[in-house]
Amino acid sequence: NEVQEILGLPSLAMVPQSRLKGSEADDGSSRGPELLKDPRSPFAESFRALRTSMRLSSTSRQSKVIAVSSCQPAEGKSTISINLAAVLAQGGKKVALVDTDMRRPSVYKKLGLEGGKGLSEVLTGYHSLDEVIQTHETLTTLDIIPSGTVPPLPADLLASDEMAKVVQQLRDRYDYVVLDTPPV
Known about the structure:
The chain is α/β, with parallel strands linked by helices. It has helices spanning 2-7, 22-26, 34-37, 42-56, 58-61, 77-90, 107-111, 119-123, 129-132, 154-158, 161-173, and strands spanning 65-68, 95-99, 134-135, 142-145, 176-180.
């Protein structure tokens, strides 16, 4: 409620805390979007409610790029990003999930993907976007772009003209682009 008052914007959904904690979320048995593991859970239902709210909200209907951040590390932004991208893909949309947290990347670990090459290699010109995209094994309309190798100055890469070009390319190719960003 405080956030709604400060921003003057409505809340689209309330997401309960994930049942996966700390190392449980990072071990092999817990990989992937939690909403796929327990589709009837309140956690999964909250993401379906968020998807519906986004479709009905006049502000959200025009938004193709969604940045997910947090105030501090370890507040669940990657969990939110992954599950938001998954629920949008479940709704039949073509979705790109991009891990832009180059200092502490976690999307590829949480999804059990290769993390070697990704966004940082695209931004520095070592690989093309197509060379780093990985498609989710069961949600075939969900493509993931890991953060890639940790660069010396990640903030400079993310603020570059090349990043703006990559985001525009993704906007043109996907219904939604979900950016898992570093904490503020």
